Amino acid sequence: MFTGIVREKGRVVAAERRGDALRLVVEAQAAAGEEIGASVAIDGCCLTVVEQEDGRAAFDLSLETLSRTTLGRLHAGAEVNVEPALRAGEPLGGHYVQGHVDGVGSVRSFDGEVLWVDVPHELHRYCVEKGSLTVGGVSLTIAAVDVEGVAFALVPHTLEVTTLAALAPGDSVNVEVDVLAKYVERLVRP
Questions:
Q1: How many CA atoms lie within 13 A of 125 on its CB side?
Q2: Which of 22, 42, 127, 135 is 20 to 30 A from 97 (CA-CA)?
Q3: Whole-angstrom Cα distance, residue 133 to residue 141?
Q4: Distance in angstroms (rounded) separating the CA atoms of residues 86 and 94
């Protein structure tokens, strides 16, 4: 369980293909301080720490993860959003985030303040004005919704402490819808 409140911008040290899988090594204190087996969200995707040493943590990504997220496009030097799993008693500053990426969205536009992201059609029904959506691991409040996607009004602090400031039209981003909306839909469906 995560909150979508990014703790640190990490840097990819290595992204090494291993057959259909990928070994990702990230330099970030928020990840490297975790025990082997701990969950850490990297750009919104829940991953398991398999090695850690000298301020770096390694993660093994399966073909399933690579096919459903943007993580397979990472390369050495890329910045990523890092959030360790929520611990009992810690404040829930964002919203309930599982780290289970629902799809990949596309940046439509970004003027330094308002970010428009087009979301996959099947996820659009979960997007409501003033609702929550996780983009690249960041918990954001939806400011507007149109037929293709959603807009967010980003504050300078968010742009400073996450990788969102570097987004440009056409960039792909991991998207996770609010899990509560999915449960409500399941419960009311005949």
A1: 5
A2: 22
A3: 6
A4: 11
The number of C-alpha atoms within 13 Å of 29 and in the hemisphere containing its C-beta is: 2
* CA 135, chain centre distance (Å): 5
Give the separation between CA 150 and CA 188, rounded to whole angstroms.
25
DSSP 8-state assignment for residue 114: E
Helix (H, G, I), strand (E, B) or coil at 141: strand
CA gap 124, 145 in Å, rounded: 9
Local confidence pLDDT in tens for the 190 residues of the chain? 999 999 999 999 999 998 999 999 999 988 888 899 999 999 999 999 999 998 999 999 999 999 999 999 999 999 999 999 988 888 888 888 999 999 999 999 999 999 999 999 999 999 999 999 999 999 999 999 999 999 999 999 999 999 999 999 999 999 999 998 888 888 998 7
What number of CA atoms fall less than 13 Å from residue 121's CA on the CB side?
0
- Residue 179 tokens read as 């899990």
* Interatomic CA distance for residues 71 and 78, integer angstroms: 11
Torsion, Cα 50 53 56 62, to 10 degrees, reads -20
**To the nearest 10°, the Cα dihedral for 67, 35, 85, 18?**
-10
